[in-house]
Amino acid sequence: MGAKEGAKEGAKYSALRREVEKAIFGRRGEGHIDPSNDRMLALVDLLGQPQRAYRTIHITGTNGKTSTARMIDELLRGFGLRVGRYTSPHLAKVTERIVIDGEPVDDRTFVEAYQQIAPLIELVDGQFDSPCSFFEIITALGFAIFADAPVDVAVVEVGMGGTWDNTNVIDAEVAVVTPVDLDHQQYLGDSIAEIAREKAGIIKPGATAILAAQPVDAAAVLLERAVEVDASVAREGLEFGVRERSVAVGGQVLTLQGLGGLYEQIFLPLHGAHQAENAVCALAAVEAFFGAGGKTGGIDVDVVRTAFGEVTSPGRLEAVRSAPTILVDAAHNRHGMAASLAALSEAFDFRRLIGVLGVLEDKDATALLELLEPVLDEVVVTQSSSPRALDVDSLAALAVEVFGEDRVSVEPRLDDAIEAAVTLAEETGDNSISGSGVLITGSVVTAGEARVLLGAS
Question: Which end of the chain is less packed: N or C, by CB atoms within 10 Å?
Fold first, then answer.
């Protein structure tokens, strides 16, 4: 196919992909949860159980899931496996959720897969009072695309929770639980123990559970589940952990204690202690997947070094522009924001930092503002395009209570908010990396839209 024909076909499938997005986004979305897997089970059954065509590693937790998934993906591919990765939400394009060999599936693959399963979706719609949701369809698409590829292993991140999450039709041999904290309380429960109980549902009989360092209440629930289903357990801080960590240019250098040995001089091009902890959980998960540990020893340290050196995590304290430095971060809850701000303090030395904040209405905006207040000189509040976004006037009122009126600006449009923040940052006259900066944060949607506006996507 020539370049002209290729461009024409690309445009055709890009248009078709947008049509598919419109069709599925028009359904019950991710903000309208129906805690049942009945439709999902019916759909994958009609598809021939594609999720059973490959081995799986399943990831849940409150924060760090996507970064951990990307690290596991890099490690597995480093050992020559063909890997599918399913994560959510996406930053800019829905196909980011379904990744094969480190790249999002192309528009043609996505469209043709949807066209094949669309009649089955209609059949399932007719069997239930509520039709299939956006997330059920995207998840089924991911499973089917991975089976068709085919992949050797899929790394699957839950959408929310665990037990009744639509991804939980898989029986993963390795279940990873990143730190559990308060988030999505209206769906998962009002306490850390209740949330942990929901997330524990991905730990299946005979699996290996890789548990990040957890609050006491969460740890007790997760261990109880492991005992109940006779799963093996490896815990950060006991069976594996971060032994040493030092800040380096562009990231950090780690010494990691894995299940099968010590891995030294690991360069990770991401910032913060939380990313080091994500890295050691990813390492332990891959060791468990390969059966490494104990008397069998670890996995090839050179492969581990190379793989971690290639890791990226877009929208996670990501520098997308300089002079002034503009950072984009998807932190959207208390635990995630605290981790991001600790990493920012460690990796950057801004004398003036301006924030751009846009949050979703179901999040604790006041908690985010209170964490940001000691760090930011001023904040520009805004609103993303999400129908779930907290309106800018409500966010501004909360911001004034925390920051005071003199330190709050209001820009309803994100592009205007970024421009205003850059102008405020430049008032120092020092746009070096250690001079002034802009932090855009508050939600995955805000981070994703900012990346597009700034040319990072």
Answer: N
